[in-house]
Specification:
about 110 residues; mainly alpha
């Protein structure tokens, strides 16, 4: 189960990195404040497509491993660990969906 947990956690990290260039400053602007150091996060903007591709690949692997692949053992510990891994996977899916659509969401907020 370690591969699924690592892949699911990697999805969360990649999704956060994909949104880090723009979502941080946008949150501060929405709340009416300004932070000067946030422009340093613009370094991640050119890498956004690569982070999204990496997140999608990790999501695919985790989904395949957790839902499609047959298990070798049906132990009680495996069931508990698998439930935790599935929760992490769905959190990663939600963050990935947000990282894909946050620019459209920001346009709706600002307009």
């Amino acid at each position: 189960m370690k591969k699924e947990n690592i892949s699911s956690a990697g999805t969360i990290i990649a999704s956060l990195l994909a949104t880090s260039c723009c979502i941080g400053p946008a949150i501060f602007v929405v709340f009416g404040t300004s932070v000067g150091f946030m422009d340093k996060l613009a370094v991640f903007a050119p890498f956004r497509p690569y982070f999204l591709i990496a997140a999608a690949a990790m999501l695919g692997f985790s989904f395949w491993k957790l839902y499609l692949k047959k298990d070798d053992c049906d132990c009680q510990e495996d069931v508990r660990v698998k439930k935790i891994a599935r929760v992490i996977l769905w959190v990663g899916i939600l963050l990935f969906a947000f990282s894909l659509s946050f620019q459209k969401i920001l346009l709706l907020i600002y307009a």
